[in-house]
Amino acid sequence: MAMSFLLKGDVCRPGRIEIEKGMTLRTIVDELGGGMANGKRFKAMQIGGASGGLLVEEHLDLAFDLKALAPLGIRRGDGVILVCDEDRCMVDLCYRLMQCTQEEFCGKCVSCREGTRRMDEMLRDLKEYRLAGACMPRLMGIGEMVSVTAFCALGKGCFSTLQAAYQHFPEEFCAHLDGHCALCENDLRPAIEPGNIPFDRKRIVIDPDACRGCSRCARSCHAEAISGVIKSPFVIDPEKCVKCYNCMDLCAFGAIREVFVDA
Ligand code: SF4
Ligand code: SF4
Ligand code: SF4
Asked: Is any atom of ligand 1 closer than 6 Å to the C-beta of 151?
């Protein structure tokens, strides 16, 4: 079955896309997205927003298979694929994603709540050339700690993009530590904003006709967003749901799905 994603960023034709099984990442960029905008080179592709991960040019011929890409930190997350061209700064992208995490986490576990706050502060300092080089290991250490101790996929995935960006583009982090990033200083376009709009447009809902009222989803929801009475349809409170998708994977009756609010 095709998967629906929102394609954003530096492609000629951004918008809602349907990804067929086996389609490569290159096909997504070149055919569904109409290729890179303004004749610039592809640099990276961020998939899944705050809890997702980052892929680079060497990954372009891989098939878009969420299970196979999971070891690279890729998750469905917020359902967005963000394409960056050669002139986008990865430090800026990591900072913006951490801002999304700040808006999305539920605050239940200390490691995610406090850890991502510290990461957010440090990434802001790094972006604004105020972070000392000696603090970089601390930033990465906190990210690693959150990724192994957080309760749900949102916290576990919050470090994936930063980790990949640092691995593939260390010179951009060095430039920010040294106080002069040519990418940030020369790129006068508006920044590409990950996450926010599509995250707000999506809801996780329970189909009352398919729900058997087993309560499994409610018992597993860390955000306490699901309620109901046994053997009657359960409901999800959209104000509490952080869209971690745990319940969708758990429901044995396929009763939980995501919907686009404005579709
Ligand atoms: S339950 Fe998930 S979203 Fe909430 S604070 Fe923990 S890791 Fe973050
Ligand atoms: S796990 Fe599925 S069937 Fe059970 S209460 Fe939740 S939505 Fe209903
Ligand atoms: S309702 Fe489902 S998607 Fe939303 S927070 Fe709970 S487990 Fe996660």
From this structure: yes
Contact 111, 155 (CB under 8 A): yes
Give the domain-ending residue among 194, 219, 251: 194
Percentage of residues in the chain with pLDDT exceeding 70? 96
Nearest CA to ligand 1 atom 4: 106
**How far, in Å, from the CA of 224 to the mean position of ligand 2?**
14
Tens digit of pLDDT for each residue in 123-170?
A: 999 999 999 999 999 999 999 999 999 988 889 999 999 999 999 999
Q: Which domain holds residue 161?
A: 3-194
Q: Is there an atom of ligand 1 within 6 Å of 53 CB?
A: no
Among candidate residues 194, 225, 251, the one where a domain is terminated: 194
- Residue 56's nearest CA partner among 76, 26, 87 is 26
Q: What's the CA gap between 4 and 217, in Å, rounded?
A: 23
